[in-house]
Amino acid sequence: MDLYENQRSTSKIKRDASVNDRIPDGLFLACPYCGTQMYNKQLGDYRVCAKCGYGFRLQARERVALLTDNFEEMDADIEMTTPDFPGYAEKLARAKSQTDLGESVLTGVANIEGEQVALGVMDSYFMMGSLGSMTGEKITRLFEYATAHQLPVVLFTASGGARMQEGINSLMQMAKVSAAVAAHQEAGLLYLVVLTDPTTGGVTASFAMQGDVTLAEPHALVGFAGARVIESTIHEKLPKDFQRVETLLENGFVDKIVPRAELGQIIAKIVKLHHRTEI
Amino acid sequence: MAVNIGLNLFRHELTPAEVVKKSREDRFFAREIIDGIFTDFIEFHGDRQSGDDMSVIGGIAALNGKPVTIIAIDKGIDINDKLSKRNGSPEPWGYRKAQRLMQQANKFHRPIVTFINTPGAFPGKTAEAQGQGEAIAKSILESMKLTVPMIAIIYGEGGSGGALALATSDQVWMFQNATYSILSPEGFASILWKDSKRSDEAAGVMGLTPKDLLNKNVIEYIIPESRNHPRVFNLIRKRLDDEFTRLNELTPDELIAQRRARFRAF
Ligand SMILES: [Zn+2]
User: Fold this and answer.
1) Structure pTM?
2) Hey, what CATH class is A57-272 in?
3) Which of A227, A243, B1, B163 could form a disulfide with B158 if both were Cys (CB 3.0 to 4.6 A apart)?
4) What count of other Cβ atoms lies within 10 Å of the Cβ of residue B1?
5) ipTM for this model
6) Is residue B5 pLDDT above 70, yes or no?
7) Within 13 Å, how many C-alpha atoms sit on residue B122's CB side?
8) Residue-range domain boundaries for chain A
9) Considering the domain boundaries, does residue B5 fall inside one?
């Protein structure tokens, strides 16, 4: 398998393909976290709530444009036979055209503030960022590439969980990616996770929680089970910040919460401190 | 290929919905299975971090005289037992107990056998606070690194990540009337069709029966069931012994490579 195949070099992608750019500046929006109302243009380039710092959901290509100085996409067009589930092919086609992505994750080699990394960015606009076979395949290949080329992996997670239409194959992706993470880990390479809003279900129960270093964006929702499922199981109303990363930080599952605008710098710094030096 | 045992020859093949129903019945209990297959079982408790989850039974025993580590998810026998085990839904510290026992098995070169019967990991407030996702993620990751053979047997429900946490093994076997799926048919129907009452229909399209999963290479073997439980246990004992003997001939590197390749295929 030639990993260089299908690479597409894009330097500083413009954000014009994104849904957010189609939102007029004068549109009034409410912050999904704190409820503050503001004009779309007030969110700025990073699309962050001025009041609470919550980062509005980004599309993968938008994230890459904001974060990287250079990005070479890999595995852009790998095709797999999708299961013959009623309506699934149409749903996939719609997601592809809406996001300009082949699957719910965008992968490639990126330069972030001078550091070269294998970068994966999940896209919650692509079928809720659900974990399909292709999603798992692309992330697995990203780790395999990184292991072969001695690169750190930086992965931005965003997922509603399993891809129901793919059944058990979706579940198997959790194991498949984990095997690639294990090999990358054994090679002594850094795996840095950035938890973004929302990261749930099978992604939380696998590669989102397997990083050496775990960063998160402010107020991102991260959990395993859905809040409604929990509430109906324990017959109790859950507190407001339940499953927000501030709570995860308190409980010991996150290393650091980083405002979106500072992420590039912090990631580069951490990667740099993992360069192997002879002592 | 699944071989029908004589008993079933004159019965109609169960529909997926019927298999789902049967998989949830109390056909086999974890302790009965353990006592039926192994000798000298000694139960070990606790995860050494936060507690002891009763829904995960673990310990060491002898398989035809040879030491093995056993980890089993148990739904419980009577109502109080079932309540304390949340009908076989482990808490994070249940998975961490499993991890501890896996590491212990690795240290002492003991094969691991897991028995799985769970609707899924427990969706609770404390479970989330204690990192249910992290607990499952780590179980999966750590089992990818074990240098001892591991075989997982789903004997009832194999619900989602909560089951996978103990099934990232060299082989996965299923009892004839067990299921293994991404979520329950009820959940599937309510998410995709907004109607949990269509669960029988969901069961039909989910491909969750042992036969479906054998065809997809998700599992290696279907264990024929019988009302004669000792017969089932004798068969499992023999097969476990054979397969562990075979897997033990591999070097640790070969074993790990093979286990990872097994999942790489999906
Ligand atoms: Zn806000």
Assistant:
1) 0.93
2) alpha beta
3) B163
4) 6
5) 0.95
6) no
7) 28
8) 15-56, 57-272
9) no
